[in-house]
Amino acid sequence: MHELHQRVAPSQIIVGWFSTTGGGLNSSDALIQEHYSKEVTASYGPVHLRLDTSLQQDKLPCSTFVSRGLALGDKPLGMEFVEVPCDVAYGDVERVGVSLLVSGDPEKGKPTAEQETLATSITRLTALLGKAQAYVEDVVAYVEDVVAGRREGDASVGRYLADTLAVVPHLEPAAFERMFNEGVQDDLLLSYFAHLVRSQVSLAERLGTAALPLI
Questions:
Q1: Can you tell me the distance from the alpha carbon of 122 to that of 129, in angstroms, rounded to the nearest whole number?
Q2: CB–CB of 146/161 below 8 Å?
Q3: What is the Cα–Cα distance from 110 to 161, expressed in whole angstroms?
Q4: How do the residues of the chain divide into helix, strand and coil, expressed in percent and rounded to 5?
Q5: Which residues contact 73 (CB under 8 A, 6 or more apart)?
Q6: Along the chain (215 residues), what's the average pLDDT of each consecutive run of 10 residues?
Q7: Exposed, middle or buried by CB within 10 Å (0-12, 13-18, 19+), for 121?
Q8: Spatial separation of the C-alpha atoms in residues 39 and 44, rounded to whole Å
């Protein structure tokens, strides 16, 4: 798999491996680290990323480690993990997904009311549009206050708003409505097929046979 990926993206290299756990380091981590030390070509060796999925205090913390060998003279004794600083950088799209993941109930393991509200794509789209509308109203109120002299303007905020408006595509209302309706129709079609497949599988399980066609 790595060789095939290198053909497509030869500039990318393996920098390490990750694990999802709520505990500390264990002996198996050293074995996996030793395996990846043979694959990683970076000078600092493989990086071990640990993601704590226990969601303590409604957080999703992560930590990174590098390893160094321990030796007594010329005799190797083992491996030591050394924690290194870790900064998490993600975009707006990833921010929505992470916020939804950490918004569940860690005690009962069930989704909260907000997650249940975002169960369908249409409802999720409606919620996102509502948030976008609220942001736009805040921006409009800020601009009106600055123009009216009720608030002192900030040049950095003005440049940010200008750059944001510059990347917004200019579409005619009819073209935007057509694109929006086409997207909604595609989403409804996918939802229909998903429910159809789920119904067929449930029917096949109740009849005790796998001979029923899915579609």
A1: 11
A2: no
A3: 39
A4: 50, 15, 35
A5: none
A6: 78 83 76 80 79 73 84 77 84 68 55 51 75 89 90 87 82 82 81 81 68 46
A7: middle
A8: 12
